[in-house]
Amino acid sequence: MSLKLYFDLMSQPSRALYILLKNIKYDFTPMPVDLRKGEHYSEDYAKINRFQKVPVIDHNGFVLTESVAILKYLSREGIIPESLYPRGNKQAARVEEFLEWQHAGLRLHCAMFFRVKVLDPLVTGRPVDNKQVEGYLRRMENALDSFDSLWLGQGHQFITGDNICVADLLAACEVEQPRMAGYDASAKYANIAGWMQRVKSHFNPHYDEGHMIVNKLIEKQRKTAAKL
Questions:
Q1: What stretch of H or E contains 216?
Q2: If DSSP codes are grouped into helix, strand and coil, which group holds residue 30?
Q3: Non-local CB neighbours of 27 within 8 Å, separated by 6+ positions
Q4: Would you give the DSSP letter of residue 186?
Q5: According to the lineage, what is the superkingdom (predicted)?
Q6: Do the domain assignments include residue 149?
Q7: What is the pLDDT of residue 1?
Q8: What average pLDDT does this structure show over 61-65?
Q9: Of 31, 71, 184, 227, which is least surrounded by CB within 10 A?
Q10: CA separation for the pair 190, 184 (Å, rounded)
């Protein structure tokens, strides 16, 4: 069985799939795609993914895009263990309930805050639009409020209950993204703080490996700020 993973560790869902495959000790071929160099816009990569995004898998010639679709496929193929993606209809539905919600409920807002505060100024060379950042900060905190109270504040350890699953890993990678823009959700939201530590503990050392670029950038920013 052959599985190739096209990814960039700056991409939240890429990190989630990379960490997951490492954690379950699945033999896959890493295929890094450097987004900062624009490798996803090359003609060769467009032949792999017409949408020119990451992540992508190639499983014995079957190419699939979109992280949630990939997770569902890997589960049905028996690659993801049942402990992380339940097979039972109702238990699987609970996992997929969150996977459907997180696109617009969490991912959009965390990603856009990072984009307007860090990525867009870096790419365009234009200064940060503080008014725009404030607007996206409000939207992100509304999303984090909902995540902290409606998903994690229900008296259990993880998103769908007391057992960790792929939903937790996907969400944790999304919550990490604003840290590169100077915002740590764990510092403000108690449920998120405790949950993040449990997720990291379960998936380490691969969780830290998957976030090595993120953490290096954060440390670089910290050192730069200390010099000012």
A1: helix 212-227
A2: strand
A3: 3
A4: G
A5: Eukaryota
A6: yes
A7: 61
A8: 97
A9: 227
A10: 12
Question: What's the token pair of residue 145?
Answer: 């409020």
Q: Does pLDDT of 208 surpass 70?
A: yes
The CATH number for 49's domain is 3.40.30.10
CA Rg value for the chain? 18
- Gap between the Cα atoms of 187 and 195, Å rounded: 12
User: How many structural domains compose the chain?
Assistant: 2
CB 204 within 8 A of CB 159: no
Amino acid found at 201: S
> Distance between CA atoms of 158 and 138, rounded to whole angstroms?
25
Instruction: Mark whether 45 and 123 lie in a shared domain.
Output: no
Residues 178 and 120 in one domain: yes
Q: Residue 20 carries which DSSP code? A: H
- The predicted model gives 93-105 an average pLDDT of 98
| Overall average pLDDT of the 158-181 stretch | 98
Q: CA 42 to CA 16: how far, in whole Å?
A: 24
Residues 205/226, Cβ–Cβ less than 8 Å: no
Within a domain: 175: yes
State which of 46, 76, 106 marks the end of a domain: 76
Neighbour tally for 115: CB within 10 Å: 16
- Please report the pLDDT score of residue 154 as a whole number: 95
Using CB atoms within 10 A of its CB, is residue 228 exposed (0-12), middle (13-18) or buried (19+)? Answer: exposed
**Domain region containing 63:** 3-76
Report how far residue 56's alpha carbon sits from residue 7's, in angstroms, rounded to the nearest whole number. 7
Same domain, yes or no: 45 and 155: no
